[in-house]
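Supplementary Text 2. Reproducibility record for the structural model of the 429-residue chain.

All settings were left at their defaults, and a single model was retained for analysis rather than an ensemble. We include the record here because the model underlies the residue-level annotations in Supplementary Table 4.
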Amino acid sequence: MNVEKVYKEGMCTGCGTCAGICPTNAIEMVIDKKKGIYKPLIDIEKCTKCGLCYKVCPGHSVDFKELNEFVFGKQPENILLGNYINCYAGHSTDYGIRYNSASGGLVTQLLIFAIEEGIIDGALVTRMKKDNPLEPEPFIARTKEEIIEATGSKYCPVPANITLKEILNSKGGEKFAVVGLPCHILGIRNVEQINKKLKSKIVLHLGIFCSTPCNFLGTEFILSKRLGVNIDNVKDIKYRGKGWPGGMSVRLKNNREKFISSSEYWDNNFSAFTPSRCRLCTDNTAELADVSFADYRGKEISLNEKIGKTSIISRSIDAEKILHQMVDKQKIEIWKINSKEATYAQGYVYLKKNAKASFRLFALLGKKIPSYNQELINPQMHYYIQEVDRHLRTLLASKRYLWCLLILYTFISSLPLSLIIYVNQKLKK
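Retained model, structure tokens:
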């Protein structure tokens, strides 16, 4: 059995783990143009049917209890966050790094520090391709300049784990960090359970909170419907730029620039382009990472702030040690926050732990559901209603000829809320 079955059943996360560890290089991650996601393409002449790709795939199943024992030696006490030692908020002390990052620049600053201090020899990160700016390029960064190239969020599918091959083939004694979404980290942890070489080479796992990943059609939708841009005219794209909370910055081939704030494109159906498999995910905070990062949106955040802060969930002793070394050397500023603050305004933490609503809707529709060995919340009714709404939006987003209906549906569904806000304002007057 191989991962072709996983993709056909709609269970593939597009993480690239299978391609990264295939011993015969029989798997390539290619873009499914119709769905706007990555899929594994298997060369049947090279495939030896060893089944390794299926065994490490986090798409069809994840044994969270087994992985927590493997990584942390215990089960988590916090169902929302997973195992952790401390929660912090903070930012880089380098203004340039902080300004150009998605939030406070902690991931970029930590990787630079780890390379400069000899903790790692390289880091698995992602940048957008120079010759094809709408496609991501996972690579091993070995210098400060290369790490800075990868700064910022990429709101598109990323098969980051294809780069595991380069880590496995690296020189003896070299150490690496990996940066990924929850599915990337889960795939890597699955491989580490059976591959001691990879486990010894990866010394730091940096997880990024994942709320609503979007397929390539989502980028095309924003470019065409909101910015009036033809995708063939794009020279460069940054999904989060120009400070915090920033927005999508697009440079055209004629060097003209287009910009849309992050709140504008998220409010204009970008989240409708979440791949179906991602709606079945239960891990928002990258629970199996050594340290996890997200935008910090604490109550004291001013609406006028132009540079961001980062929420940090430290899960391992090594991560704690590195963070405090960075503080001592004045590379970052951090302060403790409680677990509720760490997830403040991160509504998807709760949505994903109420994933039984998604499971039941998918089962009702006759669709495959991944297997998880994990404690989840029993959802209240509003999660079922929310899931039906998400399903309708995703359905309308899946075909270009339905995008006008998606816009119409969004407008109609927003009318009750708009009316409530209008009446409330009038009553206040």
